[in-house]
Amino acid sequence: MNSNSEDPRIARGMQMQLSRRREHLARGEQSLGWKVGFGAPAAMEKLGINAPLIGFLTDRALVASGATLSLANWKKPLAEPEIAVHMGSDLPAGADRNAVKRAIKGIGPAIELADLDRPPDDVEQILAGNIYQRHVILGPCDTSRAGCVLDGLTGRVIRNGAETARTSDPQANTGNLIAIVRHVADVLAACGEQLRAGQIIITGSIVPPLWVEAGEAVDFQLDPLGGVSVRFAPAPSA
Questions:
Q1: pLDDT score of 4
Q2: Are 206 and 84 in contact (CB under 8 A)?
């Protein structure tokens, strides 16, 4: 997976984004990890990139599974069922596939919530805005899947009580997860950061993202590992 390292839009956008991250951490927020976005082939083609974009996560974005959130003042909210990779050790740039596997202590289900509050057509501004990130819901880390073992996984999306999507190939929409982790490590190193033990990476939506509305509920089951869910508060009465 190419790191987009020669793209000046990426360099400028990451510089602004990581400056914003440092401001968040200076205010007392704790680093949670990283996210990737726009990794589906059609999205990369549209933006003229050859690898996913990378954003940051802090503990302020973390929401408990089953929580109810308000979408008041959101522009175009969406939910993305994802696999979270949990890092067990630091990973430097240039790591080979086996080194990446050794650094991953487990995986688990996640839902990312984003707000597409501006058109997704300017790579630099997408990165500067942290790829529309708003919240993340994390399930427990299954350490029996150390090394990012995906065999036998089935992802199911249940929306308002009805199953609306299912996949037994969780990498079909995201690309190879080992390559994604290596890509994150390489990009961070190029920007003066490092992928560290204890951080997580949410690796992209395993099905097309869901546009959501007030009053809805989304559950993501990553069988047999378990699931996460989120509810959206009803819109206020007129």
A1: 61
A2: no
Arithmetic mean of pLDDT over the chain: 95
Domains defined for the chain, CATH in brackets? 8-232 (3.90.850.10)
pTM: 0.95
End-to-end CA, the chain: 50
pLDDT tier at 167, thresholds 50, 70, 90:
very high
CA–centroid distance for 217 within its chain: 19
SS (H, E, C) 150-219: CCCCEEEEEECCEEEEEECCCCCCCCCHHHHHHHHHHHHHHCCCCECCCCEEEEEECCCCEECCCCCEEE
The answer to whether 91 and 100 are in contact (CB under 8 A) is yes
Tell me the per-residue pLDDT of 33-83, one tens digit each, with 9 for 90 and over: 999 999 988 899 999 999 999 999 999 999 999 999 999 999 999 999 999
8 A C-beta contact, residue 60 and residue 24: yes
Identify the burial level of 205 via C-beta atoms within 10 angstroms of its C-beta, where 0-12 means exposed, 13-18 middle and 19 or more buried. Answer: buried
